[in-house]
Amino acid sequence: MSTIKPFRAIRPAADKVEHVVSHAVERYSTGAIQQILANNPFSFLQVIYAGRAQKTTYTEQLHTIKNRFDEFRTEQILKKDTEPCFYVYKQIKDGRSHIGIIALASVEEYQKGIIKIHEQTLAEREEKLKEYLTVCDFNAEPVCLTHPFNQALHDFLYSKTQTPPIYNFSYDTIQHTVWKLSDANDLNIISELFKSIPNLYIADGHHRAASSTLLAESKKKQNLNHTGQEPYNYFMSAIFAENELTIFNFNRMVNSLNGHTMESLFKAIEQSFQITPCSTNMHEPKSQNEISVYIEKQWYMLRLKEGVNANADVVNSLDVSMLSNLILGPILNITDLRNDKRIAFIPGIRSIDDIHSIVDSGKMKIAFCLYPISFAELKAVADNGKEMPPKSTWIEPKLESGLLIYSLNG
After folding, report:
1. Whether 186 contacts 33, CB under 8 Å
2. Which of 18, 94, 96, 97 is deepest in the core (most CB within 10 A)?
3. Both 162 and 288 in a single domain?
4. Which residues contact 310 (CB under 8 A, 6 or more apart)?
5. What is the pLDDT of residue 121?
């Protein structure tokens, strides 16, 4: 049984929403951020980027962010809803439509494994995000959760999209539409429907969920009157059925062949894979157990040989693990994907021209393109208590910062 909870979102005034929302900071170049800061006083980047240019401690920068956030509220750029709501959210990007619900998820259910993970987190990053939440007191980027398709929930959410929305706008060619549900009957229907869903799965945002849990544990120890209903017991989530998510591949590029020539590299790879030159610029694998390779301005397709990797478990049977276990580790000597500077990751949404440009320039020697992981594979890994290699998936939709904000101080 999954428990979700409505909340009173802090959100942009309707006439300012398209000027307020922003991508996450890491999705911009420094130049693009500076241009937005110079030309758009309403951008949420004015909040989340506040203090970056100051030569102060991280904690002092966080206080600057908090102060700027409070100013946005005082100036009525951001306002808080007066009643708890669920928010139905729709995004259209590149012709792909995604519909889900934005609500609060339970820290306790995360701790109990009702909300399941497929990726381990870094303690240092967890602590840093926990400090962010502690000082700033708000959550502006939801954790993306997913679940198996539920027909009744699907029908209910789609029925609500036929009513007038509170927002319907485009930002950076992406269309966003939001409906606010505050009627007691609607809230009860949604809550009951989620009780029929045994588990939720983190699709994106493992560190955000983990840091919210650290915060909750810290606050609980400090609160002698802890009830379990305090705001810190929940984290904001965007929840989508499996068919409403798009999972892209996360490709790899390596800047060294570990002393190999192309010929000796391919000879080593041939122990596990059949190698076929691509006669055209066809580069994307069409099925599992295929990996495409770009090297010396030519594409090749690797197909796993029969019997190789036959007894692998749910993690090691993934193409991304197969690449690490059969090529990156034993042949290129790359065993630490998180820290090895020889390897770089490029999401599957990026243009193939980017791969050509980077490899042809000599910055990288070789690129490996993978077939996307499926929801069934993600679920199997999580259900078995396993974890995928780092950068295994790029999942959309990506939600914008500043669209809906959860206050942690009530």
Report:
1. no
2. 18
3. no
4. none
5. 82
Based on the structure, what is the number of domains in the chain? 2
Kindly state whether residues 342 and 195 are assigned to the same domain. Answer: no
Range of the domain at 142: 4-247+396-407
The residue-averaged pLDDT of 85-106 equals: 97
The pLDDT tens digits of the residues spanning 23-38 come to 988 888 889 999 999 9
Cβ atoms of 259 and 167 within 8 Å: the answer is no
Same domain, 194 and 290: no
Give every CB contact of residue 111 below 8 A, 6+ residues apart in sequence: 213
Q: Is 294 helix (H, G, I), strand (E, B) or coil?
A: strand
Q: 232 in a domain, yes or no? A: yes
Kindly report the pTM of this predicted structure: 0.91
Sheet with strand 298-304: strands edge to edge: 273-277, 298-304, 290-295, 366-370, 250-254, 343-347
Q: What is the pLDDT of residues 331-383, one digit of tens each?
A: 999 999 888 999 999 998 888 899 999 999 999 999 999 999 999 999 999 99
Are residues 238 and 188 part of one domain?
Answer: yes
